[in-house]
Amino acid sequence: VLTVDEFRWLVAHEEVQARLKTGGIADTEVEDLFNSLDSDHNGTVSVQEFCDGCLLWKEQANYQSILMMQNSVWKAAFTISQKIEKVSETISKHFDLLDAALDQRRRGSDWAEPI
What pLDDT is recorded for position 109? Predict the structure, then answer.
């Protein structure tokens, strides 16, 4: 079991701070972290509370990663959709020009419709 003072002492170590920072937790958020881990609000964090809190934090981090990935996929899909639309418009214009050239050619005296 850790008290808030013991928790502060623990997170004061550079290695722990570096790991927390890597996890997106600033040293100014230590008290908030302790309070979120102290699920029964008795002023201490048990091993079970610590493990449960870490698992929950990891799940939330994974969920955020999934949301960010999903957002990236949506942006890419939108960009691809726009590019496909532009290519489709360009192809359509080229076919229109080809149709116009064929119509002009058909109006000529030596044009024979293919069988």
Answer: 56
